[in-house]
Every structure is written in structure tokens, then in C-alpha cells.
Amino acid sequence: MQFIKTRFNYLFGATKGLILVAIAMIGMVTAVWGMLSGPMAEMGVREVVIKLLHMDIVQAEREGRIIILYHSIAMAVVAIETYMITGLLKMKPFFKTAINVLITVGYLLTMIFGMGFAYFGHNWAFHGLYITGLSLIFFAGVLLCVALWPWNKEYYVTDKEYAHTRSGFDLERAAFFATAVTTVLSALFGAVPGSYYGHGFETFLAENVIRYPEKSVMEYSIIGHLHIMLALIAVMITLIIGRWLNFKGILHKFAMPLMILGTIVLNLGVWGVVTPLEPVAHMIIYVGATPSMFAALLLLIWSWNKLIKDGTAHLAKPTFLQKLGALVRDPLKFGPTWQMLFMNFTTSGIGIFMAVKLEEIFRVWPAREERIELTGHWHALSAIIATIILFYYGDMIGLKGKVRQLYGWAILILSDIALAAVTVFEMKRLFITEAEQQPLVNGLMYAIDFGLGMLLVLLAVVMVWRLTDLFKGKGRWSEEKDQELSQEVMK
Amino acid sequence: MKFLSSTLLQANRLLRWDCFVAALLAMTLLAACAPADLNAPMPAFDTGVDPNAWAQVPAGEFEFGQHEEIQSTGAYEIMVTDVTTAQYADFLNAALADGSIKMDGDKVVGYYPGDFFRGVKHEEEIKAGDWLFLPLNDPSQRIQFDGTRFTVQAGYENHPMTMVTWFGAWGYCKYNGGRLPTEVEWEKAARGTDGRPFPWGDDIQRNNANFYSSRDPFENMQTFGSRTSPVGFYNGRTYEGYVTLDSASPYGLYDMAGNVWQWTGDVYEGMHYRFMRGGSKDTYDMDLRVWVRNNATPTYFSPGVGFRCVR
């Protein structure tokens, strides 16, 4: 009994244990449900999985199923980010415990009963528990906002290295707070139409209605919701990585106000799509996205500069190659900001390019091609966020030496191969016709499947290692149960 | 020194990764660079289905769309199959002879009276005038013009007419005394009145229809990918060992799911896009569900888009 109790306390009480459980849950869902779509579908694996697991797949309910699947994974990611925030930032112990308990129960209910409802027959009690899970996560978000309240003088800072006002008001905490508050509010933009459409049956996927000239307020609300939630998850992971790396100095002082401004304006733009401001909403979104992305660029510049300086501190006049070596010496610390840069090629760059080439692309391509581009770019952004979490997780569990190198570089290279191929796949119509595309598509698919497949294998290896570790009396888990992320922030 | 050896070790490791990645990229590029043979030999099968046949669809209500909204239609007739390349070549020859269409370089063009333009966001104006019916210089085009007559590439006679714009589809139906089906008419003809998601029933198997990677005799996913199948191919017959399931719709129509997307005739207020139904040889089975819509500008043409008419 003691054996189970101690492991349970670690897995559901310690920050690192909570993150491990959430990553394992996401990994399992991704591995199983990934087999229901291409290329596993073509290979016949989908039919086997459906039969083996006794899934109940009704054709008319595909869109509802996918929405529940997205939410199941996204809620676990939100939970991971929340654990990181409660582990990194100062807050009252009561809040930390309450937030972690609520969000853990919330995402587990959402995932287990949501997927149970969507794929294994329609037990309405499951649907109720799915909604209960989402509600608990919402309440955890509200509590997080209270816990982060930046005007509480307990959290004022005096260290001149960090962005703050003259009175000591912590601008980094304010950026976390602004992102948390806007995330909670933006969740409502999904919750309200979600209730309207009811039960996930009579709903739609945003990419399927994007060309209709007239959309209802509810449709706009859903389109806005999915965009802003993913953007806010990205903003939050940027802030988290900044805190982990101990972002400070002059660039921090510029970045934090920009992040606050960008987050607020971005949200106003997205919320504006359901108001008469809709015609100018995109412009507001661009205005908001620019400072947010610039703040992320400042983090990148600061962290690369720090990695180089730390790595060459013992050299009087380091050469370019020595600086480069220092930059990439630790893939887990180089990886997150590299992925933020890489995101510009797979997500932001594509979006801007598409906007510039609107007449050539969206006016000419069939809706299905546009759908591929739309779904591709937000899947790529989600995958990039996932890899950034995995970089941090690798550091968190104390990977060292060759294992650290292998883990870090494998994540970086495998994901970038896959995402680069996804990007080319999205844009292929610009340079190849439908009739001639198959060899290119095959080549890209090999790259995508290899990259993502091996990444999942790597994750599976880590998870198996962590599982076996739990059976050891003095395993790594026993050290992690008392560790907190705030103690491990870079010096 | 320690740092140097560490850096070298790192570089060495990076180099090995680089080699690995380079090998992978090279393999990818090699696979991608092999050109697709657009004229690879095509198996020829007589499906026994008459492309000149029409099916009766009675007036009445049916469940329309994914969420089964009740809609009704009048009685109409609809072609049992997609328009074939042979039928389209006959139309081109007749229409060229009587001046209904004309040549414009490598393109066939015809008159369209235009649509009312409302200037809605993203809407493009479709003015009265000559519009592209089909291009002749595209390697995927199966209809050739020798200066006097249009002919069909051998082996494609009973395949659906593709590489045809919405204007070209509209022109064919009009010339033959019909019109393109509205989306409502198309869907009713595809699913009947019992709300089924596929023309033949509730579920899809690989030998129900020609879709992406359905392993039919016409595709080779390692080289040229998917190709069209002859109209009416999925009728329960066995073709040189390939067994098909009878996949006719409740009104006896074939290929209402897969093979080629089908242009429909609706012109919607405030948008120039035209809608297509049915999914195609290039789409996953989810796009073969009868309510799934695709759309494109009316000048769009593709080896995966065809049409049929109603009257």
C-alpha cells in the first residue's frame, strides 16, 4: 500500500510527476488516434485499430469526434503549462494545490470521458463528465488568474535586472496574468457556441466554412476561439521558457511590455470578429501579433547571446565556430528558441505569404487545397509547442551527457524534418500540378512519417524508462517528488 | 582544451547527424524527383453501364446535409454516370461546327452570360463573355484537337471527362438540353430519402469507390498516384480478379462518391466560387460522404473534377 501511496503522491502531487502523467496521456492518445488517419489509414491499420478497440465510428459524427479529440489533447497541454506556471512563479500554496488538483481532475475527465463518448458509443454520462472536466479546467484558470494577481505587493520585484515599474510592479508576472486572463475569456468564445451547437453532433470544422461569405456570429466565435487559444498557448510557453532560462536584462525590460500589449491587442482583435469590428479584426490581430512576436525575438536574441557567452567565457577571443559550438552545445536550451524561430517558416511565414499571394492562391485553389494549408499550419504550430515542452521536460528530468544530446537533437531534427516537409506539402500547388504530384507527395510523406514516427518512438522510450523507474525504491521519481521548477531556473 | 574536445565531440556528433539527415533528404528528393508518367498504360474495362442512360428522381422531401435538414425537390432526370470523355469530345465537335464554342490558342472557350456582381468581400466578377471551357495544352488533358476534330486519348473513352472548368460543364449540359444539378438535386440523387452517408449505405470499403489509396486497378501510389476509373466501374462486377461492390445510389446512379468531384450548378449570392460534390480519386473516404462540399473558382480545372447533367 505504501508503494502505491508514494508513487501516487509523486504522480499527482509533485509538479514533475503531474507533467509526466500529462505527457504520457498525450503520448498514448496521439499514438492510438494517430493510427486512424493517414498514412496508417492507407495501410489498413485504421480498420484494425477500430475493430480491436471496438470503436463506434459513425460517419456523420466525424467533425464532433475530432473536436473532442482536439480538446482532449489541448486540455492536457494547458494542464502542463499550468503546472509549469505554478511550479515556476511565486504563489500561495493553497492556490498552487487547488489549481493543480482542479486542472488535473479536469483534463483527465475531459480526456477519458470525452474520448469514451466520442469513439466508444454515446454514453451521455460520459458526455456530462467531459463537460464537467472542461468546466473544472475553466475554474482552475480563474483561480490561476487570482493567484497571479500582479498588483499583490508580495510579488513586487526590486531586482533591477527584471522588467518592473518604479513601484516594483512585476511586468513579467503581469504578462503571465494577461495571458491567463485572456485565455480564460477566450475559452468562453468556444464554450458559448459549443453549447449552442450541442453535444458535438451538429457542429462543423472551421476549415470547412472558411470561404462562405456570410458566417453566423457563432461560426465566427468558433473560428476566433480556435485561433486565439492556440496563439495563447504559444504565448504562454514563450513566457514559461523565458522564466526557465531566467530571461532578464535590458531585452527583458523591452520584451515584457511588448508581450502584455501584444497579448491584449491580439485578443481584442480576435474577440472583435464577433462584433461589428469584424471587417477590421484582421488588422487588429496583425497589430497585436507583431509586438508578441517581437518579444519572442528578444527572448531568442538574449538566450542565444547568453548560451554563447556562457559557453565561451573561458576563451579570450572565441572564433565564430567556437561561438557556434557554444550556442548548440546544449540542445535542450538551444532547442526551444530555435523552434520559435523555425515556427516563422512553418506557421507565421506561411500565413503572411498566403496573405500576400491571396489573388494567386485562395482565389484560384480549390477549397480542399486551402483546407490542407489551414489545417497544416495549425498542426505544425501545435507540434512546435509540443516539442518546446519536451525540451523543457528533458531538462526537468535531469538528462545529462550523451542521453541529453541524443534526446535534444533527436527532437529538434526529427520534428524539423517533419514540419519542413509538412510546409512544402501545404504549398506544393505553387510549383507542381495535381497530376504530377504523387512522387513528391510520397517523398514528403516519408519525411513526415519518419520524423513524427521516430519522435513518438523516442517519447515512448522515455515513457517506458519513467515507468520502470517508478518500480525502483530510490528511482529518479523519489528525487523529483521534492523538487520544484522554481529552484531549477537557470542562474 | 576540455571545451575544445567537447566542441569537437559535439561537431563530430553533429556531423553524423548531418550525414544521416542528408541521406534521408537525398532519399526523399530521389523519391520526389522521379517524374510521374501521366501516360502509363491504363487497364481497359467495359463496365456494362450505359453513360447515355438517365435515372428518374421523383419529387418529394429528403434529408439534406450532414445534419439532415428536410429539403424537397421537384421530379427530374439525372445522368446515371458522369459525362465521359467520349461524350464530351462529341459535344466539342458538334459545338465547334455550329459555332457554339471557339478555339482561343490552346484553349476551348464558350459564351457565358455572366452573374450578378454584388461586390461582397472576396467576390470576383463573372462578366458576360467568352470563358475557358477546357485547356488543351495540359499534359493531363485526355482530349486532343488536331486542327479540325477533337478526339479522345485511347483507353480514356469511358472515363469521366476531367480537366473541364465549371463553364465547360455548364456549356455541355446546356448544349444537350439540360443543366448542372443544384446541390440539393445532386445530394438527393446520391443518397435517396433515408439519410445514408454514402450512396450505397452506411459504411465504405475500398472496393466501393475510387478514392485515395483505395487500391483499385488504376492507381499506383508509388509512381503516378490515383487515376480515374471508367464510369460505372463499381457495379458488383469482377474485373480480372478485382472484385467491386455494387455501389449504385438508391436511384441507380454510379460514381456519386469518389472517382471525380462533380460540378454543381448553383450560383450563390455574393460569391463567385462554384461547388463540387462527391469526393474524388484524390481524396480520403471522409470526403466521399454525400454532404461534403468542395468549391473553386469557375475557371478551375483538374484531373479530379468532372460533372453530370440533369434535365
Summarize the structure.
The complex is a heterodimer of chains A (491) and B (311). Chain A is mainly α and 491 residues long. Chain A has 3 domains: 1-148; 151-293, Four Helix Bundle (Hemerythrin (Met), subunit A); 330-491, no CATH class.
Task: Indicate the topology.
The complex is a heterodimer of chains A (491) and B (311).
Chain A lengths: L1 H12 L1 H19 L11 H8 L9 H27 L4 H27 L4 H25 L22 H27 L19 H28 L5 H22 L6 H34 L8 H8 L3 H26 L10 H30 L4 H27 L10 H32 L6 H5 L11
Helix pairs in contact in A: 1-2, 2-4, 2-15, 4-5, 4-6, 4-8, 5-6, 6-7, 7-8, 7-9, 8-9, 8-13, 9-10, 10-11, 10-12, 12-13, 12-14, 13-14, 14-15
Chain B lengths: L1 H32 L20 E4 L2 E5 L4 E5 L2 E4 L5 H13 L3 E4 L2 E6 L16 E7 L7 E3 L4 E3 L13 H10 L7 H9 L46 E2 L2 E2 L17 E3 L10 E4 L15 E4 L8 E2 L5
Parallel strand pairs in B: 12-15
Antiparallel strand pairs in B: 1-4, 2-3, 5-6, 6-7, 8-9, 10-11, 12-13, 13-14
Task: Please characterize this protein's 3D structure.
- The complex is a heterodimer of chains A (491) and B (311).
- With 491 residues, chain A is mostly helical.
- Chain A has three domains: 1-148; 151-293, Four Helix Bundle (Hemerythrin (Met), subunit A) (Up-down Bundle), CATH 1.20.120; 330-491, no CATH class.
- In chain A, 73% of the residues lie in helices and 0% in strands.
- Chain A has helices at residues 2-13, 15-33, 45-52, 62-88, 93-119, 124-148, 171-197, 217-244, 250-271, 278-311, 320-327, 331-356, 367-396, 401-427, 438-469, 476-480.
- Chain A is globular and about 60 Å long.
- Chain B is an alpha+beta fold and 311 residues long.
- Chain B has two domains: 1-33; 54-306, Alpha-Beta Complex (paralog of FGE (formylglycine-generating enzyme)).
- Chain B has four helices and 15 strands.
- Chain B has helices at residues 2-33, 85-97, 166-175, 183-191, and strands spanning 54-57, 60-64, 69-73, 76-79, 101-104, 107-112, 129-135, 143-145, 150-152, 238-239, 242-243, 261-263, 274-277, 293-296, 305-306.
- In chain B, the strands form six sheets. Chain B has a four-stranded mixed sheet, with helices on one face. In chain B, strands 5-6-7 form a three-stranded antiparallel sheet.
- Chain B is globular.
- At the A-B interface, α11, α14 and α15 of A face α1 and β14 of B.
